[in-house]
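User: structure tokens for Kef-type K+ transport system NAD-binding protein, please.
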Amino acid sequence: MENTCANMSRFEIIQNRFEQIKSNKAFEIFVISVIVISALLIGAKTYPLPDSVHQLTTILDYFITVFFLIEISIRFIADKNKKRFFTSFWNCFDTLIVVISLVPIDNSEMAVIGRLIRVFRVLRMVSIIPELRILLTSLVKALPQLGYVMLLMFIIFYIYAAIGSTLFENINPVLWGDITISLLTLFRVMTFEDWTDVMYETMEVYPLSWVYYLTFIFLSAFAFLNMVIGIVVSVMEQEHAKARSEKYKEQGKVEPTLDDVQNELRIVKEMLQQHIQAQNKSS
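Assistant: Done. Predicted tokens:
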């Protein structure tokens, strides 16, 4: 019984130490630095390298793989609720990347897969930095709302492509030969890739065709783009508010609402008025 208690106390000491390491800002910066080095290492391997440098990159790759294995082990041991650890998507993602990274990349049939998996190490930057997690989560949650915007945008594209294919097919069949090619041409116009050349070519036959292009650019590049930005920003604000409330909850606090702030201001205002009235009476 005493040995069990001693082992439990030792484990708790180790767990607390790992918790301190995981929460240490310097350790977090070091992990980010290793992720950046891993990304640079992947890029360096795409160049022809001397044998000595190639051996150095191989050693660094082994070091990074071992370091990530140790880092994920520290995070797992430091978590007091081991079952909760794998309920987090980012913990599962990091663990999967680390485990698959153990696949050898030299003299192996799985070498290509091993190299491809190492590319995804860069995504660990998202799981480490909370702001990037909020940004990616907001983008994913905004997809359902963006779907309706994309559908409306496709309808506008389709209408303009049908008009362009009907009017401009004889001018340039390469750009306006059918509706699918017209869609690609309109995408080129939307991205402002030499769109004036396309417009001036049709204006030689239809002088007022500039109205076609300007209205399409206004709808696609300006109106719809601002709608997409507005949806993403709105979802990001909701995610930031959710992150703040979770932070307050972890600290045992309650996030103040607008009503709470207004009540506090009202109380302060009443106290000031009472203080002024007391001074006036005394004078």
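User: Anything notable?

Assistant: The mean pLDDT is 80.
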